[in-house]
Design goal:
This protein has 134 residues and is α/β, with parallel strands linked by helices. It has two domains: 62 residues, 2,3-Dihydroxybiphenyl 1,2-Dioxygenase, domain 1 (Roll); 59 residues, 2,3-Dihydroxybiphenyl 1,2-Dioxygenase, domain 1 (Roll), CATH 3.10.180. The protein has four helices and eight strands, in the order βαβαββαβαβββ.
Length: 134
């Protein structure tokens, strides 16, 4: 079987802070943000690529919801693959904001060996960013 990842959902204590981080630092485009702010949709997202988004679920969606009372403990980290120039640019943006980074280190991923670093968003979600090749 082959599949494409459609979305992941991060439980968010502060949706606005996470949207700002992913839009400004990681440079992922927000989607449905104005509709969320207007109360027309239950959550906003940030776009990873044409096939994948990260949904940012506000506390009201996961606290007290008997189907989704936890979520954070399951996620160790997620990984974004970038081109080398984009990766270097992200690394510079993280350094400028004094966001602690682990790496660069060689690591294995979906396309074999690559170079990656780890960092955290404002709510402590761990993100790996990698590039393959030179």
């Amino acid at each position: 079987m082959q599949a494409v990842l459609d979305h992941i959902v991060l439980n968010a204590e502060d949706v606005e802070t996470l949207v700002a981080f992913y839009a400004t630092v990681v440079e992922l485009a927000p989607e449905r943000l104005e509709e969320f702010r207007a109360g027309k949709v239950p959550f906003p997202s940030v776009r990873v690529n044409a096939d994948t988004v990260i949904d940012l679920a506000p506390r009201s969606m996961w606290v007290g919801n008997r189907l989704r009372t936890t979520g954070r403990p399951n996620l160790n980290h997620f990984c974004l693959t970038l081109g080398k120039a984009e990766w270097e640019s992200l690394r510079a943006r993280l350094a400028a904001r004094q966001i602690v980074v682990d790496g660069p280190h060689p690591r294995w991923g979906a396309h074999g060996g690559g170079t990656s670093m780890y960092f955290h968003d404002p709510e402590g979600n761990e993100i790996e960013a990698r590039y393959y090749g030179d």
